[in-house]
Amino acid sequence: MTTPDPRTIAVLAAAGFPVDVLTDEQLQVFATLSEEELTLLLDIKSRLDDVEPEVQAHGSVAGGALF
């Protein structure tokens, strides 16, 4: 198991992830992401942000898990 890295949460918050609404368990999962997983998640968020008006309308359908 990967050791939790609290810096990961700071990186996610800086990228616009709403970390303040996540449960402790969810934060634990995010804090244990590998460097590759974090990079992928940030890339996906960046691409979604690039098309925000189109994705934003579907936020309630998708559950907003990544936003």
UniProtKB/TrEMBL annotation:
InterPro entries hit by this protein: Aroma_sacti_dom (IPR054632)
NCBIfam families: aroma_sacti_dom (NF045560)
Protein name per the record: FXSXX-COOH protein
Source organism (scientific name): Kitasatospora kazusensis
